[in-house]
Amino acid sequence: MARQNFESMIEQFSRSRDILKRELGKAIIGQHDVIDQVFAAIISRAHCLLVGVPGLAKTLLVSSLAKTMDLTFKRIQFTPDLMPSDITGTNVIDEGDTGRREFRFVRGPVFANIILADEINRTPPKTQAAMLEAMQERQVSVGQETFLLPTPFFVIATQNPIEQEGTYPLPEAQLDRFMFNIFVDYPSEAEEERIFAETTRGKLVELSTVFNARQIVNMQKLINSIPVSEYVIKYVTRLVRATRPKDPTSPDFVRRMVDWGAGPRAGQYLIIGGKAFAAMDGRYTVSTEDVRRVAVPVLRHRIGCNFAAGAEGVDSVEIVNRLLKTVGEPDVAKYTRRKPPSEPAPTLPPDLEQPAPLILDE
Q1: Three-state DSSP class for 83?
Q2: CATH code reported for the domain at 227-332
């Protein structure tokens, strides 16, 4: 019965992804891989960074996604004069009915379910660091008080890769907090023709709500409960350790072109991302192919290329693609018994609401 319930919920989950993409298709033309990766980050209880030149609908994608979810949404436009208190909030002096003056905390825009951090690299490191605790700990500390952020909570940041004058590159510690570094590319010729035809009519697009907060939380719990085999874990371990130039298993091109490689958090995100993509395809088992699908967005900002790589025109994406071709899958263990041990059945988390619908009425 538990397996049947699990399979039924995975099927519902896959259908919910299809409904979401159809709804977003009313406002966003193309960018299917980007939408899948953003959705995978959301259901993985993680954050993502969208990188692309201006005019590729990065902000429109996030705002449209917020409209399809019954969640609170705030957009923070990062500028060079933005202060940390402009994000987290600040204490103000309030005079109550008794005439006594006391401090009262006024919450900032970070107290929302979905945060669009627009052009996050345009603000100084001090303000960027104000997002760090919110992203990692899902809380905000002001003075001696700590305030919990709402659930669910995720940050989708955007960044312009071409105009670097007056910008502040994100430090590695904060980049590591983003599960995916998603590159938003130009649309195809056919998609661009549709964009020109449909967006110049002056017609307003109305999006329907697909998810609410309870369903998003249930999806996150469902993703965490998907089992992962030892075989996939060994493959992820090999892949992550191969990115480190000082590791004895790393290939020669990594030792020559990489200064520093990915840490353990990268392996965690490879597995969680593999779970998300497996569930979106309607499967409750994670394969090495699922890991390879998320390898580039997970690892591209966790590999530091050196001067030798730059001289040959090699970036971190090329390093990851070479690793995917070089790092082999682990050997399958041979069993001496006639019947190998059965795989444990997937079990639903005890705190998952039952019944727990993952989609609204179509």
Answers
A1: coil
A2: 1.10.8.80
